[in-house]
């Protein structure tokens, strides 16, 4: 199904049938789509009604002209909930998805029960890096960046032992709209949620990958220090901890969300 935003953009949403269980909204990372959560579907569906969507500029969702902002991406998430008639949800987001979760916790607190913020950051002071990426993909598409992105997302050991999964993630990156990717890069470049994170009151779990070069452990530690009462767990993984350490990720996040 598609939900139309207030600016006319259509967001692709996949909602499992109503089953009387609480809703869990998954939000994808930069450069992937809702299928990055495939390994979470079966175990999490035992406890929740799963709702996942392709972020603006990704997957089957529209990629309107950017730049985007984290506020825009957060309002998209709220509109997705409204489009499926969900008043309040549990939330799990990774990387850019975790940035959306921080915005929801601070600016739409009545819409979230608990937050799992995974491999993410409140602020990334690297404007030159994001500007360089924007320039590359705008001129040449996703191909020049894809291999380097996946090398940062997954450890070398995982890539060597799981070539099929590595290839699947690479295909996601290559299939991402270059314009959508660039517009979301701008959102991350301009994001600073360090002050607003202090206002989050929903129970919050921060998941860190101890080998994550994209959002290093100190970024997650910073969120932990900012969000009152938050908890933190560290996994033996790079950036896509839900894929590289599926079993440990599922246990940590499910144990937290179902308390």
Structural class designation: alpha/beta
Number of E-type strands = 8
Low-confidence stretches at least 5 residues in length (pLDDT < 50)? none
Number of helices: 11
Shape descriptor: globular
Q: N- to C-terminal separation? A: 31 Å
**What pattern of helices and strands is seen along the backbone?**
EEEHEHEHEHHHHHEHEHH
Give the strand order, joined by hyphens, for the main sheet: 1-2-4-3-5-6-7-8
> Considering DSSP H and I runs of 4 or more, what fraction of the residues is helical?
40-55%
Mean pLDDT: 97
Largest sheet: 8 strands, mixed
What fraction of the residues are assigned to beta strands by DSSP? 15-25%
Integer-rounded radius of gyration:
17 Å
Task: Describe what you observe in this structure.
This protein has 259 residues and is α/β, with parallel strands linked by helices. Helices cover 45% and strands 17% of the residues. It contains eleven helices and eight strands. Strands 1-2-4-3-5-6-7-8 form an eight-stranded mixed sheet, with helices on both faces. The longest helix has 14 residues, at 70-83.
Short description:
This protein is of the alpha/beta class. The chain has helices at residues 38-45, 70-83, 96-107, 127-140, 143-153, 156-161, 163-175, 178-190, 217-226, 241-244, 246-257; strands at 2-4, 10-15, 23-27, 49-53, 89-94, 112-118, 204-209, 231-235. The longest helix is centred in the N-terminal third of the chain and has 14 residues, at 70-83.
Please give a handful of descriptors for the protein shown.
259 residues; alpha/beta; 8-stranded mixed sheet; 11 helices; 45% helix; 17% strand
